């Protein structure tokens, strides 16, 4: 989550963000909605989100992806992967 935030706040410094197993669920969805609606994504970095399939991680990564797109984040700069754990 720190990498995601740093990239969003400093797109002039970071051209690509790797948000690996981001804990977006740590903050309420209203907080994220307010944060995203105030962003200008014109010079946004490419964002890659990688998350496991644990329910909280999956939901928060999917919700962030939807929130970014609905607030004008360029779809061609957004990549995400959700992996399933192997049953051993």
Shape: globular
Number of strands: 3
Give the radius of gyration: 13 Å
User: Largest beta sheet: what is the strand line-up?
Assistant: 1-2-3
Give the topology string: H per helix, E per strand: HEHEHE
- Percentage of residues assigned to helices: 25-40%
Q: What structural class do the secondary elements suggest?
A: alpha/beta
Mean pLDDT, nearest integer? Answer: 86
Describe the main β-sheet briefly: 3 strands, parallel
Account of the protein in words:
- The chain is of the alpha/beta class.
- Helix content is 38%, strand content 20%.
- It has three helices and three strands; from the N terminus they run H-E-H-E-H-E.
- It has helices spanning 2-9, 29-37, 55-70, and strands spanning 16-20, 46-52, 78-83.
- It has a three-stranded parallel sheet, covered by helices on one side.
- Strand 2, helix 3 (55-70) and strand 3 (78-83) form a beta-alpha-beta unit.
- It is globular, with a radius of gyration of 13 Å.
Write the layout of secondary structure elements.
Layout lengths: L1 H8 L6 E5 L8 H9 L8 E7 L2 H16 L7 E6 L5
Parallel strand pairs: 1-2, 2-3
Helix pairs in contact: 2-3
What keyword list fits this structure?
88 residues; alpha/beta; three-stranded parallel β-sheet; 3 helices; globular
Quick summary:
This protein has three helices and three strands. It is an alpha/beta fold.
């Amino acid at each position: 989550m720190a990498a995601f935030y740093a990239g969003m706040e400093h797109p002039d410094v970071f051209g690509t963000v790797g948000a690996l197993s981001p804990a977006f669920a740590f903050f309420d969805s209203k907080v994220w909605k307010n944060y995203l609606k105030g962003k200008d994504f014109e010079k946004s970095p490419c964002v890659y989100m990688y998350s496991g399939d644990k329910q909280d991680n999956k939901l928060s990564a999917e919700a962030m992806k939807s929130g970014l797109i609905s607030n004008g984040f360029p779809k061609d700069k957004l990549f995400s992967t959700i992996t399933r754990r192997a049953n051993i």
